Amino acid sequence: MKRIAFLLVAVATVAGVVAFTAPASGHADEEAAPISGVTIPPGYRDWRLISVAHEEGKLNDLRAVLGNDVAIRASREGKLPFPDGTIIARLAWSYDPLEESSKAFGHPQTFVAGPPKNGVQFMVKDSRKYASTGGWGFAQFNDGKPADEAVQKTCFPCHETVRARDLVFNHYSP
Amino acid sequence: MKRIAFLLVAVATVAGVVAFTAPASGHADEEAAPISGVTIPPGYRDWRLISVAHEEGKLNDLRAVLGNDVAIRASREGKLPFPDGTIIARLAWSYDPLEESSKAFGHPQTFVAGPPKNGVQFMVKDSRKYASTGGWGFAQFNDGKPADEAVQKTCFPCHETVRARDLVFNHYSP
Predict the structure, then answer these.
(1) In this predicted complex, what is the ipTM?
(2) Rg of chain A (C-alpha set)
(3) Does A52 sit within 8 Å of B64, measured CB to CB?
């Protein structure tokens, strides 16, 4: 009886985890990106953090790089190349001065994330399927819709500049 | 028999999740911070992302704000005050120009997270225990050790400037 009770608690826990995790980003079955055919991975907003970044100039955003479980494990171990099944997500938001901080300091001191900006990008590792682009399928989505082909074509050449790091710019931040 | 098999799969899944989640930040049983008595919550590095930020000036860092499940749920719903049990973690890393990007653009364009910097901070909501500091217990840890009392004393007055947001600076970034 104790054993059954334990099992039921375990089942309830699993059900709870699934129920709680599901609603975050229900973008399943959406349109595939041109070239790679990558779609928005369901629940990606719940993935764990790899690192953060800031782009100046025209992009002018604050960004977070999240990874699925395969990506997190590989990033922590620092082993290259990333294994098939790795998915890395790059989210970005506008780069906004925090009002209270600007008032307190008399100049912008703290910058926080405003509304989403510059789309959401994904890198999906499948060394056979994406052999011609370094083993990665690239995709950018703006407001949930794939960006056009001209935009998608810019991903690989840019990431190729870090071929020595398996085309991944960010390191895991402990 | 089918039911037992299902239960065993569920147990294995729970065990798997626990086994995979555990090694991230094994800081349990560490020293408590002065004033609040807050200790480093085990596994906080695996928590989900609330938002990101950049501090200029002396702090000069890139930061991520993570939350436990209670914090994530409350942040997404945008309801104030945060419920008891909320824990918010602020991680920070040095603000470093990305070498490849600087070369390509001829000036620093992309800033990425370097080594950890400015400690790790936690806000723990317990409206009774921490009634005298707005319902929050504050703590900063440098290299896994609590910062001294003078540092801990600076948390509450600064966060009090956003009392209308229940002392929390960051919003949830979708």
Answers:
(1) 0.84
(2) 19
(3) yes
